[in-house]
Amino acid sequence: MTAIHIQGLGTYVPERRITNVDLMSRVDTNDEWIVSRTGIKARHMLAEDENGSDAAAKAALCALEDAGIEAGEITHVLAATCTPDYLCPSTACILSGKIGSHGAAAFDLNAACTGFIYGLETARGLLAAAPDAKILLVGTEAFTRRLNWNDRTTCILFGDGAAAVVLTNGEAGRPRKRLPAAARLRDVRCGADGRQYALLTVGGGTARDYRPGDPVQDDFYLQMQGREVYKLAVRSLSAVCEEILERNGLTLDDIDLFIPHQANLRIIEAVGDRLKLAADKIFVNLDEYGNTSAASIPLGIGDACAQARILPGSRVLLSAFGGGFTWGAALLEF
Questions:
Q1: How many beta carbons lie within 10 A of that of residue 64, not counting itself?
Q2: Which of 298, 62, 326 has its CA nearest to residue 185?
Q3: Residue 96 domain boundaries
Q4: pLDDT tens, 192-239?
Q5: Which of 3, 18, 133, 250 lies at a C-alpha separation of 20 to 30 Å from 172?
């Protein structure tokens, strides 16, 4: 197996932008309360006629253009999401039809907010087994469709969006529009603790035996035990970052930029403090998007590139945590 590279990147956020002030008309909250506790100032919401697969398709087509690869050349379509259009068929199958990747293997990954990192690990395994594969990996979420707007502790946190990458074996290749250079995927580490699954759930599956005409219950929507999630998130993010660095003979001094999952500014700051990482090395964009779950990390890569926070030669550390309870980290070299 030769070096695995991210050859193209594409992002999409819905046009509809919901500020904290906008939320005051539908939930008992205010801008100061939200910003002080989360760092979030706005989030984006899908239009009524838009689904997660539509957002994924827009991001995917941009990534394919960036990579200089036609949809028909893609061999695998992976969709990281915990808010799929349907339980069946997969969002990846719907996506492949929308972009024209007919005949490509297509399936979803659900590791919640860690989905993109899990997707990188899955792509790495597929490329080891099939070195000529061309893989489209998309993180896409429609989380505003699964929020209880009567619960001000959770409905303020999440937004919708999608981002996609194309991964192949081989050389870095041609120049790109959205990446300063093709990014080599140096390593990925993933973990989970299923004993903690009840800390963060989104209903709609078969654990509840709904019958035609039954009203949905609160567990149909996102439910989260915030304090426990915070403690586990800080511990798991810090530990997996230290693990992947040690495994690769690196220290935080070797890292040019850290892109953590954008869930809550307090979590990001606590992880930075625990790792003793300078604030100017930590990328934050959750003030604009909120928590976009599996789309969070690739949206961060896109914004960091657009802001010239990632340059040729940059070494970037990614890390995420999510429901399950899941966690993961990845190392990119541009």
A1: 24
A2: 298
A3: 4-169
A4: 999 999 999 999 999 999 899 999 999 999 999 999 999 999 999 999
A5: 250
Residues 272 and 301 both lie in one domain: yes
Asked if the structure places residue 174 within a domain, the reply is no
Same domain, 190 and 314: yes
Catalytic site residue from 62, 261, 264, 305: 261
82 in catalytic set? no
Specify whether 98 is located in the same domain as 231: no
Looking at the domain assignment, is residue 211 inside a domain?
A: no
Question: Active-site residue among 110, 264, 291, 305?
Answer: 291
Same domain? For 11 and 154 the reply is yes
Distance CA 76, CA 95 (A): 11
- What's the CA gap between 306 and 320, in Å, rounded? 21
Same structural domain, 222 and 159: no
Backbone angles phi, psi at 162, to 5 degrees: -155, 150
Name the active-site residue from 82, 93, 113, 155: 113
Quick count: other Cβ atoms within 10 Å of Cβ 45? 23
Please choose, from the candidates 244, 208, 235, 300, the residue with its C-alpha nearest in 3D space to the C-alpha of residue 11.
Answer: 300
Residues with Cβ within 8 Å of residue 163, at least 6 apart in sequence:
9, 10, 11, 12, 59, 116, 138, 139, 140, 295, 297, 298, 299, 301, 302
Rounded to two decimals, the pTM is 0.96
Comparing C-alpha atoms, which of 167, 115, 104 is closest to residue 140? Answer: 115
Residues contacting residue 287 through CB under 8 Å, at least 6 positions apart: 39, 40, 41, 42, 265
In a domain, 25, yes or no: yes
| CATH at 58 | 3.40.47.10
Whether 58 is in a domain gets the answer: yes
Cβ neighbors of 152 (< 8 A, separation 6 or more) are 27, 28, 29
Cα atoms in the 13 Å half-sphere on the side-chain side of 224: 25
Question: Do 124 and 187 lie in a common domain?
Answer: no
pLDDT tens-place string over residues 93-126: 999 999 999 999 999 999 999 999 999 999 999 9
What is the DSSP secondary structure assignment for residue 179, as one 8-state letter? S
The alpha carbon dihedral of 97, 71, 2, 186 has a sign of negative
